[in-house]
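Let's study a protein:

===
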Amino acid sequence: MGNDKPSIIYYVEDDANIRDLTLYALSHAGLEGVGLLDAEEFFDACERAVPDLVLLDIMLPGTDGLQILSRIRRSERLSNVPVMMLTAKGTELDTVNGLDAGADDYLAKPFSMLELVSRVNALLRRSQRSIDATASNHKLEAGPIVLDVDAHSVQVEGVPVSLTLKEFELLHALMQNAGRALTRAQLFEQVWGSDFFGGTRTVDVHVQTLRQKLERAREAAGSQLETVRGVGYRMRP
């Protein structure tokens, strides 16, 4: 991403046939995939090198995919790595649960390899655009919330708040436009881009988790992020 070195993608999947086929498709598209059987192998690999993206099955032996995702989002080294869930659990509730847990995208099995590669490339592009767009910015403040773009950190009255990549981008978009109501479509376009395979419901899910994390640092911080009925959301200055 951003140079000639291929992106490294970790794929955690216990079904060898699916894992090998997916890794072949990624390799054919010029992407470097590493297949991993379970949570232990995955976190051992992360100690050696942080991936550019993670593909994650939910139903795994031992620690399941949602538990792995939770550990990723709590990890200082891994919290900003994009994660796509690849799973047979494909209902709307399963999708919402995955996004609530911090996934950046969700693809139900059986899936087309062409669609998978397209989504992977879309996630990698959005991740790189986020890095490029914020590279020269500095700090933003709204009430007790301080967002440092250069450090990619958020604090509420000095208390660090751990956010996923998309939660950080969403908060950044809202704080850049503090006092202005943004529609769900505007937020969706700014944070996920037109190539995202989702809907504006994704914005609501991420706003909910973002509020909860801000409130855990300080209850009043969550109220900085206001719902504008019939429009979208607004960050109070």
